[in-house]
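$ fold --in a.seq
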Amino acid sequence: MTRASSLVTAMAVAMALAAASPARAQAPVDVARAADPSRSADAAFLAKARESAAADAELATLAAARATKPATKAFAKVVLDASRGLVRELEAMAGTRQIANVPRSEAPSKVAGTLRSQPPATFDAAFVTAMIAGRSAAVALFEAESRDGRDDEVKEWAARQLPALRDHLAAARALRPRPSS
């Protein structure tokens, strides 16, 4: 037996053992490769919603420390508590569905980086603008899932989160600076 054929045989045996392994059958499902198309849309929602909530928590943490206006600090604390709760619930739902947590992208960190570079005089307005954008996207994401989701539990959970998300969006809009006339 040649060295090349030995290597091929060893690889074939290793692949067969890996495929037969009971641990493989219970491994978390990769969101991008979910076998069941009806679950993959819900899995994608859970991943996107988790990323959105984690990004909002990151921004709110920054604002709780750096905001200069008491109303902005108070709003940041509300968003921080709500976002941390959403992340916990989303991770639990993903876990019960054997869906692997997807690593966060760098986009939220870029927004946080932009906020970190804001001088104190413009920080509050920049945070409010970022929260309006983030909460608007979250509302759209949760509305789509509550309307189009296939996993009834996830669909109903998304619908239950919408009032709080809409309240946060309205609160962020109310904090938006008014143009001087």
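$ fold --in b.seq
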Amino acid sequence: MTVLGEGKFLQLVNEHNWEYVRRKTVGVVAVFPLFKKKDGKMYVRLVSQFRPPVQAEVTSTVAGLVDNGENLLNAAKRELYEEAGLTSNQFQYLGCFPSSSGLTDEAVDLFLAFDCKETQDLDWVPDKEEGIRIEDYTLEEFNQFLQTKPGLVDAKLYIAAFYYPIYLKLREEEIEKAKIY
């Protein structure tokens, strides 16, 4: 393998005549946060921000880099708070997915976060340096959003959209079984 160039987080390499980008960091996590508001409806919080590689605003799940020495779950909890101002102790791991297998070795570990709570930290605001904008959608609005595709939508969001109904149904069944009559 030959290193063709590198920056703080990435290396451009050539291996067996294949040029690709290697992550120099531990990993990447993404979180699809689900929570109820006072109206009793289930919501998802999405993150939008300008992404220079595509020169456009992209809507996605909460996502970020795993810090050295940090496990995936703790990274997911940290990113959920930092980017979305939410906390949760109920996570479902969905798996690890390559972000673009012909371009990079990066793989994303994706989680669902259930029963999220909005932070009571009055100092919390989305990271201004990252230009993050958050939006809440009911699940019905979210499904409509995916059908209308207003602008660029990150692929992680489509993967989460496929999985979340399955896990919501399983959770409802588990809660129903646990009820004592």
